[in-house]
Amino acid sequence: MFKGRLRRTMTLLSVSALALGMVSTGLLTGSANAANSTPGVTANSITIGATVPLSGLAATYAPVSAAANAVFTWVNKHGGVNGRKIKFIRLDDCYNLAAYGLGCTAGASVTTLSQTQVLVAQDHVFATVGSLGTAAQDSVLSYLKTNGVPQLFVNSGSIDWNQPSKYPSLFGYQPSYVAEGKIFAKYIKANDVGQTIGFIGQNDDFGTNGLLGLQDGGLNLLPANTLTYNAADGITGSSADLIADIGTLQKNGVQVVVLDAVPGFTNGFLTIAKAFGYSPKWIISSVGSAPDLVNNASEASAITTDYFPEITTTSDPWVPWVRKVLRADTADASYFPGLTATSPLTGNEFYGAGWAVAFVEALKAEGKNVTRAGIVKSMLSTTFATPSITPLKYSKTNHQGMQGGAIAIIAYNGGKVPFKALELSHTVFTTGGTKSSPITVTSHFIINPIPSWLK
Question: What domain range is 31 assigned to?
Answer without folding.
Answer: 12-175+313-381
